[in-house]
Amino acid sequence: MASSTADLGLVQQRIAAWRADRLSIALVPTMGALHRGHCSLIELAAQCSDRVVVSVFINPTQFGKGEDLARYPKDHDGDLRKALGAGADIVWFAQSDQIYPGDFATAIVPSGPAKGLESDHRPQFFGGIATVVARLFGLLRPDRAVFGEKDFQQLRMIEQLKADLAFEVDIIAAPLVRDPDGIASSSRNAYLSKAGRSKAVAVPAALNDACAAFAAGERDATVLQRIGLQRLLEAGLRPDYFALRYAADLQPVNGGLCDDPGRYRFLVAATCDGVRIIDNCRPDAPPWD
Ligand code: PAF
What we know:
Blueprint: E1 4-5, H1 8-20, E2 25-30, H2 36-48, E3 51-56, H3 76-86, E4 90-93, H4 96-99, H5 118-121, H6 125-140, E5 144-148, H7 152-164, E6 170-174, H8 194-200, H9 202-215, H10 221-234, E7 238-246, E8 264-272, E9 275-281
Parallel strand pairs: 1-4, 2-3, 2-5, 3-4, 5-6
Antiparallel strand pairs: 7-8, 8-9
The structure holds pantoate (PAF).
Pantoate is lined by residues 29-31, 59, 62, 129, 132-133, 151, 154.
């Protein structure tokens, strides 16, 4: 049986056969260029489901003008090897006309947790993701779908999408994975030069600084955010935001913080030598312990 295909009909047949055998199915949607972070999502999917489908599709609708759609990293053979090695049963290299057939005429406009932060800088981003993820759910009807906490706002947006559109799929959150230097694993890290990488370490370092201040008793959100921003600016990065938000709905924190760190999340986006890096953590879970 093929373990990789561009044939949607074949993927749907395999899923139907598994379902007839009462096997549970997890989907791991990706844009390819798989790295350790993706592998951890696939491993988690394999732990919680009988069969794992990995989709690979560079979704054009989530890229804005001037973004890196044309040069987004591609690695067909590496993706296949890594996905199967991590526990995928089938890898679907989706084609544009399968996801967006010529008469496709729907665009989802997410709000709630999708408002602000990334949307302030990439207005098309979450609409494109919500639309492609809804399409994947409709085409494959998985029991579960796994998304990484690396894209924390995306994760919250998809949980909201599932609730609002009543998709019968469990959304599983997978912990963020870091490269050995502390930078969150991301396909776009491939764009960083050696010098850029050592500068980009300021992103997890900014989270670390804010976490250290939280651990030392600082409970003023404005002060904690300023501490993170300062580290980014000192390192010569261009921050889009360093924010402290309620973890549940990503609303801004009003007033002082309570002592329960689980209620909050630091979220950061900054550009380093032309490469945009996002990261996040709980105030009690700094990138470096
Ligand atoms: O997280 C990603 O790689 C993408 O945003 C996703 C969820 C695969 C949609 O294109």
